[in-house]
Design brief:
single chain; 3 domains; six-stranded mixed beta sheet
């Protein structure tokens, strides 16, 4: 029988009287890949904070239960103790220094030094860095992951997928690693990069390293996991060998309700001859990694248009360029009226809203409350949620101030409608899980009551139940409020489910458009930029 690397027995945790974990039991053996599944708010992050000894746990009264490493009880009350016990953590949000090399990031705080003439005389503090030895270690760690990248490359020069491998290599290089925790490691990766990462996980497990794998992608769980544990509302719903689960049963147990299989939302009332609402001509966008070279398309009033394609092909750059976040040129018009490029305010004033794929960098004011994040753009652009002064009209605008009652009421309505898991509307955005942060971004866009809504990767990092809520809300906005939606996504299945047409982009240009029920082979050919495929729309 393999050695038990980790045992978490009867784990419980409360925050200020609210029970967030109750009686959780998890066991990992050497070389086992154990998947942890659950919706946002299910308790996964809290459980990992306990395992990694994060200060937030011990500053709020500690936890119930017992943690054992190699069958011996341990007191992991700091990250340093967790690392000393052989636990490594690969976070969803990168913890790398962009101006440093791969080697420097891997060896940070564990540098190898060597003697020189001065250190021999004046002491160890004058030793110099042994870059030859450090580069050798870094190369070895990256090679174990199947990556052949020059170890002196700057992090800032790497694509996102390679950054994730550097994070993993850093943990491997620490030496006596017994357990690696992967927190949504494929959330920002392309399909090919995700495949490589899963292969690397399997390679590490064969070396005897236990892996705790947290992901919302259920197909990845079924591909690599040996064991699956499902959490819901802070409790363990089920745990067992992968063979006893299907993707459908995992989804149902995660959300506590039966999940219907994805079906395309066909509608008979959409007419392809509908008037053009947004006309894009010869759009060029200088977005690093997602350059748009020459994109033209007419978008019909009232449709849901999907934009798909492989990572790096330019699909992400289209909305970012139109919304003024990256340098752009070309001709964009709404109802025949030109829209100035390189000006976010110009697009917003034309009732065009945007949900960015970069929720932490662009989408949120991380240190502001949920309610202010939801209201802030509407306050700035549309003068919503303001009380007016009671003096003369010409002075009233200067005396405007926030209508906190209406801000709170509006936030509570959207928190309920979007199922934002939080302690209340005053909670800071920074402390929310990734999926709930994304919902706040969508709530802010909804608040603008746009005529056109660009959404970029709206379900990235969101669990299966929340994905459905987001897709349903987009359809509701479209059907009930007449909002024209342009949805960019790496999830072709989601585009095919709710879109009226799907435009495929490759190498910064439009390859063609397809109806959502077009044959798989047509989508495959277009994704591979086979331009001989007939343009369908």
């Amino acid at each position: 029988m393999a050695q038990k690397v980790l045992e978490m027995k009867n784990i419980g945790k409360s925050y200020f009287g609210t029970q967030v974990l109750k009686d959780i039991n998890i066991t990992l053996e050497a070389g086992e890949i154990h998947a942890l599944a659950g919706e946002n708010g299910a308790g996964k992050s809290t459980l990992m904070n306990i395992l990694f000894g994060m200060p937030v746990i011990h500053q709020t009264g500690g936890f119930e239960g017992e943690v054992s490493i190699n069958e011996k009880p341990v007191n992991l009350n700091s990250p340093q103790k967790a690392m000393a016990a052989g636990i490594g953590m690969v976070h969803q949000e990168f913890m790398l220094l962009p101006g440093f090399t791969i080697t420097e990031n891997i060896k940070l705080n564990r540098e190898i030094t060597k003697d020189n003439i001065f250190s021999k005389i004046f002491g160890k503090s004058l030793k110099t860095l042994n870059f030859k030895a450090m580069n050798k270690d870094a190369k070895k760690a990256m090679t174990q992951l199947g990556m052949s990248i020059d170890e002196i490359t700057l992090i800032s020069k790497l694509p996102v997928g390679h950054m994730q491998f550097v994070e993993i290599a850093r943990e491997i290089d620490k030496g006596e690693i017994k357990l690696l925790v992967f927190d949504e490691p494929t959330a920002v990766l392309t399909e090919n990069e995700a495949d490589k990462l899963l292969e690397a996980m399997e390679r590490l497990s064969k070396k005897g390293i236990a892996i705790l794998f947290i992901t919302h992608r259920l197909d990845e769980i079924m591909r690599v996991a040996d064991t699956i544990t499902i959490l819901r509302d802070g409790q363990m719903v089920e745990s067992g060998k992968k063979e006893s689960f299907t993707i459908e049963t995992i989804a149902e147990k995660m959300v506590g309700r039966k999940m219907s299989k994805s079906e395309m939302l066909k509608r008979d009332d959409f007419i392809e001859t509908a008037p053009t609402l947004l006309n894009i001509e010869n759009l060029k966008v200088d977005m690093p990694g997602e350059k748009v070279k020459n994109f033209s398309l007419e978008i019909k009033k009232g449709e849901i248009l999907g934009i798909g394609g492989l990572a790096g092909g330019g699909k992400i750059g289209i909305s970012n360029g139109i919304m003024g976040l990256y340098p752009a040129e070309g001709n964009i018009s709404k109802n025949g009226i030109p829209i100035a490029l390189n000006s976010p305010v110009s697009s917003l004033n034309q009732k065009i809203a945007f949900v960015s794929e970069d929720r932490r960098g662009i989408g949120l004011l991380l240190d502001e409350s949920i309610e202010m994040n939801i209201a802030t753009t509407a306050i700035q652009i549309q003068n919503k949620f303001l009380k007016k002064g009671l003096l003369k009209k010409e002075f009233s605008k200067s005396l405007s101030f926030y209508d906190n009652v209406s801000i709170r009421k509006h936030a509570l309505e959207l928190i309920k409608e979007l199922d934002i898991r939080c302690t209340g509307p005053e909670q800071k955005a920074r402390s929310l899980s990734g999926g709930n942060q994304q919902k706040v971004c969508i709530a802010r866009a909804f608040t603008l009551e746009p005529e056109i809504l660009f959404v970029s990767e709206p379900t990235r990092g969101i669990d299966v139940g929340a994905k459905q809520i987001v897709l349903d809300l987009l359809v509701k906005m479209n059907r009930e409020h007449g909002v024209t939606i342009i949805m960019t996504s790496s999830e072709l299945a989601e585009l095919r489910k709710i879109c009226d047409r799907i435009a495929i982009v490759s190498e910064g240009e439009l390859v063609g458009t397809l109806p959502p029920d077009a044959p798989d082979v047509d989508f495959g050919l277009m994704m591979a930029a086979k331009k001989e495929v007939v343009h369908h729309g």
